[in-house]
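Need residues for this backbone.
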């Protein structure tokens, strides 16, 4: 009888957890959840609704086929949602419910989501989907794996990718395996960057003089949140920088950049990264006895062997330097962050990117309202 959505969802969560697997309660729980207006909920409440549906299935059992079909139709109308975490949860629910339409909607996200973590999640989830596939969708999905082999992770990273692919292949018939053999057998092709979206064309070698005049009115509203997030990926920012719960940890965490930088200072730090270099993220020039130089940050020291990270885009690749052969060390005047990262973006893309950063990742920030 509770009419407040937040309290109702909390009650249903508690009931699912405490019900001891009593499946007789499931229709009643689903009826309560069905009365909640998803579109009227705030983002965190939408997430709670999706998680409560998950609890209703994991704790109270798999629903009947007719119930799954009806739920797939209802929940499928919500896809996609703005919050990336909820969108992944919704994808997982729809695959579980056997929704045939979600595959065509989610396969592009495997290839185009702006972070490798998000792409991996969609690939993992769709690996269990059995309905809604076409040959073209299968090919698009499996062509992602040779690209993903270039992504960066821990020691077991490639094993996890292999497991995701194996789960997906297991859903194929023998005829489908034969039909897709050429794609399934593709080998990884090295990429210049560890993570990038679709290839982009050069736009302009942007300077502060080109862009700083746009910062005032350009950030006062009507910016595009989704495009800003996509540009954070397209400019390879996610490869090195943490933002919220996503991205790398090689460069500074940018989650709280709003409280540290003005729009102009933030833009300048991107266009002219060497103008001011933080001591925490500076690099060292090692001059060796033979006159050669190695520039980077010392990641590990083992006796006289210096393991120097020379490429922020590839934090696990090191150059070994013999400390006994170093004749001079000095602070580098050049940032390890490469210049020109915005040169493939249009001016509106750059403004969307700045708004995304300055909003702290909040799609309801006034910069995104009309």
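Answer:
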């Amino acid at each position: 009888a509770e009419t407040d959505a937040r309290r109702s969802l909390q009650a249903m969560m508690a009931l699912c957890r405490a019900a001891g697997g009593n499946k007789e309660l499931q229709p009643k729980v689903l009826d309560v959840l069905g009365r909640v207006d998803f579109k009227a909920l705030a983002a965190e409440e939408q997430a709670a609704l999706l998680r409560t549906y998950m609890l209703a299935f994991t704790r109270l059992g798999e629903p009947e086929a007719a119930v799954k079909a009806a739920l797939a139709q209802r929940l499928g109308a919500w896809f996609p949602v703005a919050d990336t975490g909820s969108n992944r949860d919704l994808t997982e629910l729809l695959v579980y419910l056997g929704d045939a339409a979600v595959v065509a909607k989610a396969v592009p996200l495997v290839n185009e989501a702006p972070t490798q973590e998000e792409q991996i999640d969609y690939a993992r989830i769709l690996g269990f989907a059995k309905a809604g596939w076409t040959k073209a969708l299968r090919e698009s999905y499996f062509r992602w794996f040779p690209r993903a082999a270039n992504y960066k992770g821990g020691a077991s990273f490639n094993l996890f990718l292999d497991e995701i692919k194996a789960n997906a292949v297991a859903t194929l018939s023998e005829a489908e395996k034969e039909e897709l053999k050429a794609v399934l057998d593709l080998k990884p092709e090295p990429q210049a960057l560890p993570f990038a979206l679709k290839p982009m064309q050069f736009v302009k070698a942007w300077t502060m003089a080109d862009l700083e005049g746009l910062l005032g009115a350009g950030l006062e509203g009507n910016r595009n949140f989704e495009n800003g997030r996509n540009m954070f990926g397209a400019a390879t920012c996610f490869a090195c920088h943490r933002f919220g719960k996503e991205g790398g940890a090689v460069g500074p965490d940018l989650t709280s950049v709003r409280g540290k930088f003005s729009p102009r200072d933030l833009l300048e730090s991107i266009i002219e990264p060497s103008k001011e270099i933080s001591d925490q993220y500076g690099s060292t020039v090692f001059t060796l006895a033979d006159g050669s130089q190695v520039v980077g940050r010392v990641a590990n020291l083992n006796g006289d062997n210096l393991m120097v990270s020379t490429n922020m885009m590839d934090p696990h690749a090191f150059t070994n330097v013999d400390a006994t052969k170093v004749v001079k060390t000095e602070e580098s005047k050049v940032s390890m962050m490469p210049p020109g990262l915005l040169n493939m973006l249009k001016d509106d893309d750059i403004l969307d990117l700045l708004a995304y950063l300055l909003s702290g990742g909040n799609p309801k920030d006034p910069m995104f309202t009309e």
